Amino acid sequence: MTTDYKIKVQNVTKEFDLFKTRSDQLKAFFSLSNQEIPEFWALKGISLEVAPGETLGLIGVNGSGKSTLSNIISGVIPQTTGVVDVRGDTSIVAINSGLRGQLTGLENIRLKALMMGMTNKEIDDMLDDIIAFADIGDFVYQPVKSYSSGMKSRLGFSIAVHINPDILIIDEALSVGDDTFYQKCVERIQEFKDAGKTIIFVSHSLKQIELMCDRVAWIQYGDLKQIGPTKEVVKEYRAFIKWFKALPKKDKKKYQNDAKERQKAFKIDDFEKQVVEQRQAEEPNNQQVARDVHKEFYSGVISETMSWGNRILTAVVAVAVILLMLINISGHSLTSVVQQPSLIFQPTTSVTTNSKR
Ligand SMILES: Nc1ncnc2c1ncn2[C@@H]1O[C@H](COP(=O)(O)OP(=O)(O)OP(=O)(O)O)[C@@H](O)[C@H]1O
């Protein structure tokens, strides 16, 4: 791997717990249940780099992990393990992400721009341009939840290109617009490329991929199947799609089911061992390989379950809040309850009766 990259993703995995109910999810968060939660590994160890000024395409069949990877790179969701090093601000345009449904278009513009560190004055200065590019008329004053997917995509794209990020991530956002809008977007993306910006472009349209991308990564059920020059990877992918489409229906289903089963059966510890073995073969004199790999796997990762320390702290805070509530209801002061705890069960307040009947 080189040091001159804009984005580096190394041994990145993403596990989703397949909870059946919301209460199972809560129990697992607080680790109150020993019940095994079925795991699903949407990414099984992806490593790739994107060079400054490069446009990298992400292709793959439905459910292969393209959006998961682009959401991890843009910081929308955390990875389960691995290194994600992004050198610069990212802005993601996706059909279903980035815009808050309850807020109007105008409020969404301001929110996103403020989150990117812009001042209100800077936002006011570019507001007209964003609205003009999105071209959604008076809908800009309406909550985004009332928008069609094409309108969301127009607004999302317009915001993303005007806030001028270092890295633009476009996840299928061009597939829902009309031809005129698509053309406008293509021109804007070209301007971004000419300005030396880095772009990740996710699409099912191989024509769009061929038009925009310098290199392409083909993601296949959580694995990086191939990465390389656009022409080569698209050629291989087209051949795969042709082969897949020619399969009888039941073989297609089996192929998909087998891949999903492998994603459920994936074991992160086995993957870590495999990476250690590979690294040891490359660096036979390095005694620290296992430690280094473990650090790379877990040091940049935010735990999605509570640590023991946090669990104890949460329990202490919860007990303290309940006690304070009970003291408040009892009507005694904190000092008197501390001196005589049984007072908590002897409320001072008495029901006043009306004697003037
Ligand atoms: N929050 C989640 N919980 C459980 N599974 C999820 C979650 N998000 C995604 N997945 C699963 O992860 C896998 C990868 O999904 P992802 O959306 O990244 O695929 P994709 O390649 O972008 O697909 P598409 O081309 O259909 O948009 C899919 O099997 C999906 O069902």
TrEMBL record:
One example GO MF annotation: ATP binding
SMART domains for the chain: AAA
Pfam entry (one): ABC_tran
Key words of the record: ATP-binding, Membrane, Nucleotide-binding, Transmembrane, Transmembrane helix, Transport
Regions crossing the membrane: 312-331
PROSITE patterns the record matches: ABC_TRANSPORTER_1, ABC_TRANSPORTER_2
Positions of the ABC transporter domain: 7-246
UniProt keyword annotation of Phosphoprotein present: no
Record has Transport as a keyword: yes
Record InterPro entries: AAA+_ATPase, ABC_transporter-like_ATP-bd, ABC_transporter-like_CS, ABC_transpr_TagH-like, Bact_Polysacc_Export_ATP-bd, P-loop_NTPase
UniProt similarity note: Belongs to the ABC transporter superfamily.
Name of this chain's protein: ABC transporter ATP-binding protein
Taxonomic lineage of the native organism: Bacteria, Bacillati, Bacillota, Bacilli, Lactobacillales
